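User: Here's a chain of 326 residues. Predict its fold as tokens.
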Amino acid sequence: MSKKRTLKSIKMLFCLSLFLLCLPLNNNASAYDESLLVPSEKIVIHSDDDFEALGLSGSGTEADPYLIENLEIMPGTFYNNIEITNTTKHFIIRNCHLKNGFIGISIIDAAEGTVQILENLIEGNQKYAIWLENTNDAYIAKNILGPDTLIGVRLENCSSVTITENICDDNGGAGIIYANSDHITVTKNTVKNNEYIGIQIKFSNDSLIAYNQIEYQTEYGIKADLGSCNNIIHHNNLISNNVGTNEPQAYDGGFNNLWYDEATLEGNYWDDWNGEGNYSILGTANCCDPYPLAKPYSTEEASFPYYLFILTFIPLTYIIQRKRKR
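Assistant: Prediction complete.
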């Protein structure tokens, strides 16, 4: 290849890098589209055969999951809007409006890695917006959970569930609660205006709670109860939780939970931190955030080094590869 063509290729790669730099950053704005909705009766699935009986699109494989989408379901407070139990097929629940039921989405004993809950509006339900039990490796993203539901997301006996980019707003209890569940990832959620607690974990271990906006809960922003160990909690913005109590915005009754990122030695942002020393955290763990952030964590600021890396790495890699071929 000529030197002229090499320079042209580098320019093209650099332009690609600039394009990536201009891509919008992730935020937890749901892609929920009300214009696509059609009214539906409640969905009840108690075996794999029920997917096909309902005439859902898809075949239930990982590449072609069953689709429960674009439905508006208001079954009444004695019924779940969508109820799925004892299944092994892959499925996605997407762009549904689930209102005025007992539980918005109830999933129990679904096979590992088969569940995705995306871009739904779930409001006005008597108990939970989303309830998962005995279900591992599920993905819950970009849902609007609330108002007027007791709890946004509730997990029991689950593992490796990702809860990301959801909005849990104005619920009567808590935004997100999980119990007896390990390796849960809770990131980039907005949890606000809930009457009880923002994020609460009970007897749950080895989880990550990071990059969340947690504000205006009546009680704690984050609460790690007794029996919760080895959880990592960092880069969350905690603002105006527990206001009027003169208590910290978080509680830790567990053991060996880490309230900062070991790689960066950065903790969380607490709007009531006085700017000096540690941020004390209430609870029997007698712990603290040793590296509180001086200003709210910003996704944009954190993403810039990544894009800068792209801008320099792609062209540099190409040049090195060309030299090796000579």
